[in-house]
Amino acid sequence: MRKILLVYYSFEGNTEYAANIAAKCADMDVQRLIPIKEPPKKGFGKFFWGGKSVMMKEMPDLEPQEYSAADYDTIILGFPVWASSYPPAIATFLRDNDLTGKNIYVIACSAGGDARKALTKLAAKLRDSSVKTSLSLQDPLKNQADADKKIPAFIKTIV
Length: 159
Ligand SMILES: Cc1cc2nc3c(=O)[nH]c(=O)nc-3n(C[C@H](O)[C@H](O)[C@H](O)COP(=O)(O)O)c2cc1C
Known about the structure:
By secondary structure, this protein is of the alpha/beta class. It has 5 helices and 5 strands. Strands 2-1-3-4-5 form a 5-stranded parallel β-sheet, sandwiched between helices. Helix 4 links the parallel strand 4 and strand 5. The site of flavin mononucleotide has 21 residues, from helix 1, helix 2 and strand 4. The site of flavin mononucleotide (FMN) has 21 residues, from helix 1, helix 2 and strand 4.
């Protein structure tokens, strides 16, 4: 039985929603990444702050994590697309964890439903390892029926 770790970051709850469904579909440990400092949640400032943090390739310090990727051979990364890329909390995680040789899967949430650019950037970052398959979701909190259907089907292909 492969050990699975779902590692996710969620700013506004969409990826959290997706992660909660995924966690019910198979035996896995779940690690939420929580930056110690977060952008403002309201107003346009969040896009400015968040977008800038992606452009500047920021890697925010994260709160202590319960699980370590080193103990798992399958990692599911869950994140919202930010400025057509993966968000800074994921950048920190990728800096701090060697995913070489692991089976990597992605659940990406976005407003537009197209995570291809973010996945290309993630692939460039991973270099020595590659994403096996990915699921792209459009704001799961707004499109719950779609997410409720697609996530279990996706997890089924992993286990
Ligand atoms: C700073 C910031 C940048 C974003 N950039 C994009 C983007 O480039 N493309 C897109 O489709 N959605 C973008 N979004 C929307 C989120 O990816 C989308 O709403 C996602 O479902 C949010 O997930 P979360 O609730 O887990 O944070 C952005 C949101 C924020 C806050």
